[in-house]
Design a protein that fits this description.
alpha+beta; four-stranded antiparallel beta sheet; single chain; six-stranded mixed beta sheet
């Protein structure tokens, strides 16, 4: 009881002192501040008062410029995509931080732990660069040595290939932990000539977009209907005008009437020549009660590289490159949806010349008897990329077929009704 009375008396004393300070305006209390010291505050209070400039108004969505680096709301992201066709750069949290913070260089962030970690990364990179120089000297030595020293030209070539692969791996390990590299990649400023950016782009593609593509390929049975096996190593994007097509999407016939633009991104260095084949394996054949394949586009000797990825099918040169011009995808009324598969075939022997070019031209002249396996057999190649979309009968299909000169728009396909088995009356004695 004594302790309780003491604490209550002390509390009353504190309240009286507080009320007395509030009742006397001459007494001054200073709040806690972190922007200036007490001496600086005193000099500011005693000095001549000058009117302070009003603070700038907080940025609002109506005043903000639609910038892919600073859009931080879903509404502005949709406006950016709708007006400019660009995608926001980086995460939404990062864009909001850039919008509300000063423009400090990333490598000069004033965080002690961050700077200490950068020192470790710099030391590790110097060690990797030494290993790269040593590996290059070893490769030069092996190239200068005679093949008999390693047991033949074949064994020497295999050794050099393994050493080159190890050298590329060291180049990636030297930059894989650099935060500046990761920032530039997230900002879309990466140079695809460097192995690290190709590696990061490949990992990003395989994390989600390739999984979706393989799911569509398996669901729609492109394997084994068209190829026995398929392992894409290049990312293929398709655009009709400004519309990006997702794998397996059903398109209106007006959209697919004109040739698309492809973006083929490879993740290994060097230039190569590829062939592009667009096929429809779902052409109904009434005579055989089955389906045939039809070629809608065929082009060869198209150069691509990690930095040269755009392939507009409409602007490809027609002399020797385009063997079969774009045929608009079409489907007759009553038929199921048609799968349109786009295959990117890497030519192992470079450009086609001589007899092979003549053979491919003769195959392209008969599009209704076109076989992808035959093309890959006559033209040594392997499928490195694939994309697909679907089409079916719609209100504008007849006009598209008429413009393309395709007959059969007035024909409607119907399924045959199964014939009923003859009725057999069962013996009623078994139920007695």
């Amino acid at each position: 009881m004594a302790a309780t009375g003491y604490f209550s008396k002390s509390l009353r004393t504190c309240q009286q002192c507080t009320f007395s300070r509030l009742s006397h305006p001459s007494s001054h209390t200073r709040a806690f501040r972190t922007s200036a010291s007490a001496k600086l505050e005193a000099s500011i209070e005693t000095g001549p008062s000058t009117p302070e400039a009003p603070p700038p108004p907080a940025p609002t969505e109506s005043r903000r410029n639609v910038d892919p680096n600073t859009v931080a709301t879903p509404r502005l992201e949709r406006r950016l995509t709708r007006t400019t066709g660009q995608q926001p750069i980086g995460s939404r949290r990062r864009r909001a931080a850039l919008l509300t913070s000063a423009n400090v260089p990333f490598e000069q962030l004033p965080y002690q732990c961050f700077q200490e970690a950068r020192k470790l990364l710099v030391a590790d990179r110097k060690e990797k660069l030494k290993q790269i120089d040593e590996e290059r000297r070893r490769i030069a030595k092996v190239q200068a040595d005679p093949a008999e020293k390693y047991g033949g030209e074949y064994i020497k070539k295999g050794r050099l290939v393994r050493m080159q692969n190890y050298l590329e791996e060291l180049k990636i390990l030297a930059d894989i932990n650099d935060p500046i590299i990761k920032k530039r990649f997230e900002d879309g400023d990466g140079d695809m000539n460097r192995p690290i950016y190709r590696h990061l782009a490949d990992q990003q593609w395989r994390k989600q977009r390739r999984l979706i593509l393989m799911q569509r390929i398996n669901q729609m049975h492109l394997v084994p209907d068209m190829l026995a096996a398929l392992d894409p190593t290049a990312e293929v994007r398709m655009l009709f005008g400004r519309r990006s097509v997702q794998p397996g999407e059903i398109l209106n016939s007006r959209v697919s009437e004109t040739p698309p633009r492809l973006n083929v991104q490879v993740f290994d260095k060097g230039q190569r020549h590829v062939s592009i084949v667009v096929m429809d394996p779902d052409v109904p054949n009434v005579d055989t009660d089955g389906f045939d394949s039809r070629c809608h586009f065929f082009a060869v000797d198209i150069p691509i590289s990690p930095t040269s990825t755009a392939v507009p099918l409409l602007k490809l040169p027609g002399d020797g490159c385009v063997l079969r011009k774009w045929l608009p995808p079409h489907a007759q009324k009553g038929s199921p949806y048609h799968r349109l598969a786009v295959f990117i075939l890497e030519q192992k022997e470079g450009r086609t010349t001589g007899e092979k070019a003549k053979e491919l031209k003769s195959m392209a002249k008969s599009p209704n008897k076109f076989s992808l396996r035959s093309v890959m057999g006559s033209l040594p190649s392997r499928a490195i990329g694939v994309h697909l979309f679907r089409t079916k009968w719609d209100d504008t299909m007849a006009d598209v077929m008429q413009k393309a000169g395709v007959t059969g728009a007035n024909i409607e396909l119907k399924r045959k009704k199964p014939e009923k088995l003859p009725y057999q009356k069962k013996d009623g004695a078994r139920y007695r």
